[in-house]
Amino acid sequence: MFAGIDEVDWASMEHAYGPADDVPAMLRGLASADPAVREAALDGMYGAVHHQGDVYACTLACIPFLFELVVDPGVQDRGSIVELLTSIGGIDLDGDDEDEIDEDEIEGAANYAMAATAVTAGAGVFFELMADEDPGARLSAPLALATLHSHPVRVLALLRERLPVEPAEEVRLALVEAAGRIALRHRSLAGPVADWLTRLAGEGFPPGLRLAALAQLARCAPDALPGDVVRVVTGLLRQLRSVPVRRAGTAPAVDAQAGPAEAVAAVDAHSEAAGTGEPPVEERAAPVTLVGQLRALSEEGTSGRTAPWTADLLRTLHVGLDDRVAERTALLTDQLRSPDHQQRIDALRMSSGLIRAWRGSYEELVRLVGEQLATPEPRLAETAAHVLEELFGLAAPAADALAARVVADPGAWIQDWPSGPPGLGSAVKALARLGDARAVPALAAALERPEVPHDVGFAIDCMGTAAAPLTALLRRRLGEVRLHEGAYDQASPLLAGLTALRADEAMPEVLRVLRGAPEYRGEWLRTAALRALGSFGPAAHGAVPELRVLLRRPGNTSATEVAEALWAVDGDADAVLPVLIEGLQAERVHERRSAVNALGRLGTRAAVTAPRLRALLGHEELWLRVDAAIALWDVSGRAEESVPVLLAAWEKNRHVRVRVAECLARTGVAGAGSDVAHVLRAELASVRRHNAMDGGYGSHDTYEDEKLLALCRQALLGSTGKGPTT
Q1: Which residue ranges make up each domain of the chain?
Q2: Among 34, 30, 50, 25, residue whose Cα is nearest residue 42
Q3: pLDDT tens profile 604-616
């Protein structure tokens, strides 16, 4: 084994962390008899040689040696090596990707192409693994073939041939998944694959296999799903819950004359009594590698479960069902009623993903999420609280459950972290984000802590006037802040809370901070104090002399922030206009945006700045163009120049839509033209959230999208006097 490995000039190549001269040791480590050494080697391969999916010259040089490991029956954990090869060779660059490649990426793209060619050329060895004695190798081989082999018809035939005789249930599910992958990669085979999956989803096959077939149908041929798919899936889940936990064993020979359903059922029946042919769990030391930690987490989540792969199948099914929100909601509602705590945890996570990406009617689903807060199982209750935390107003059906949870568990009001400031617990945040006064005692307790949680101010902002009883406590704590280097971290959540409450009685405490802000983060602290004064409006008139002095000599304080505060308190446009006009020339875009937005708030009092704002409509920075268009509309009272800019930005960058809709809801669309109403109605008609992303999300995504919907309705209502029809 490894003939010629030492002749490769590894030192001349690099991986993610430097010279690749350590790669031979990793390859030899993959063949070690010691599980810890194998794990460390695999971790190194993913962490350095194939870092985040990258393919380097040393990755290409590894491919022949990885194939040597795969075909040697004496090597353990060969399934992991098959998965590594599949990842290295399975990256597709379609025409669109190739068009977007710049000069710096040409070498990387060439490496991907060479890796795909090299692994595909050797993919024939995976055929032999389909009947290997090692269940791990059999588990990885089907997806490798479906991804890499150049003769998908032959692969599909082998999958169908292998299914009736495969003893390991998890491998049978992999065979079905591989068929779905073939259908997605080779659309000419989608029909035959769908026909086979439809038969497997029918009566007579084991429930796990039927569920796997339905999941793959949802991915590759959703129109072939049964009309009552939710009823079928929930019935299969109930059957799976009744199956006892299995132990490893050997499957019997299958009658060659039996039909596919009878053959699979015979193997499955034996597995229930004697096992699935899977190896016993190997005793391992506590993992120290990332690969080991991920494996341990997976094993912890599946330990003792009757069908641990059910969650993966359901996730696949939900992805395939895509925008069929009502069916997905009904399925999750059933999942949340499962007697299995882990299945309910899985359902909570899937519910979060559904609500985050798709618009729909979720009242009953959210109520069931709230019911999980009362469970004695801590992971289940914590997961439910985290889901509700991100729903903001959509969490209303769970308000009473949240309030009960907050009262029952004061220890969870604050979340302390190993590093960084403390934060509010999920249940408290969720309740506060509903504006529910029952969160006040928890927020008061948070304000009494020596280190105030960093997100208290945001929570108070959500509470609105319901948080007014906290004003005196906020004032006291702000007055206790020592104006030294740590002042910003201590004072900013308190100033945010007072700003949200417009608590003008706190002007003495705010002025103390403004006057005594230290040098370290002093500009940030003064900005927070100025915004508090601005929120107080004319009630802070006593601060006007100080603001005027600061406007003339701002030092390292933002002159625009001072001008905004003075305008909000005193309304003196003549005093602030020169400062804001100067701000339009700032070098940094965010400073120019601040000046633009401040001018917009002056309205027609800033009409003289219209030519300057008009000049910014063609700026290369989209957000500045949008701000300038809105401000121009505000200072001129005319929409015709601004609307085309706003609509173009709406189409170009979905994240700007809330900002544009805020303008339209405030000004109305009656004078903006029919194009605006068409865009707003199209947004309301979309079932996909405007900011939904594949593979990522933000904690405020649902809130932002629901806000967008409300603004669209408000803008249309204001233009016609009637509500939108959509």
Answers
A1: 1-148, 151-165+176-245+258-277, 323-395, 641-726
A2: 30
A3: 999 999 999 999 9
